[in-house]
Amino acid sequence: MSGGYDDLKTSWPELVGSPGHYAHDMIHKDRPDVQIPVVVVGTEVPPGFDDKRVRLFVHPDFNLKVALTPVVG
């Protein structure tokens, strides 16, 4: 690994179904440089790409489990 920008993780499919707080911690561990807003599925979000953001879409249930693969953008 060269340690450059191309080596940064950009998606976390393994977190689908995990509790939101756990997913947040894992993403932050891999990418402390990004903001991680938690969004309930069905909530409208503004369009646009942001390479310093990972939206964490969660189900609106008690555990707020991750519903969609978190990706940078």
UniProtKB/TrEMBL annotation:
Keywords, in A-Z order: Protease inhibitor, Serine protease inhibitor
What Pfam family is a match for this entry?
Answer: potato_inhibit
The signal peptide, as residue positions, is none
Q: Does the keyword Membrane apply?
A: no
Statement: the UniProt record of this protein carries the keyword Ligase = no
What would you give as a GO molecular function for this chain, any one? serine-type endopeptidase inhibitor activity
Gene3D superfamilies associated with the record: Trypsin Inhibitor V, subunit A (3.30.10.10)
Q: Which family does it belong to?
A: Belongs to the protease inhibitor I13 (potato type I serine protease inhibitor) family.
What this protein is called in its record is: Uncharacterized protein
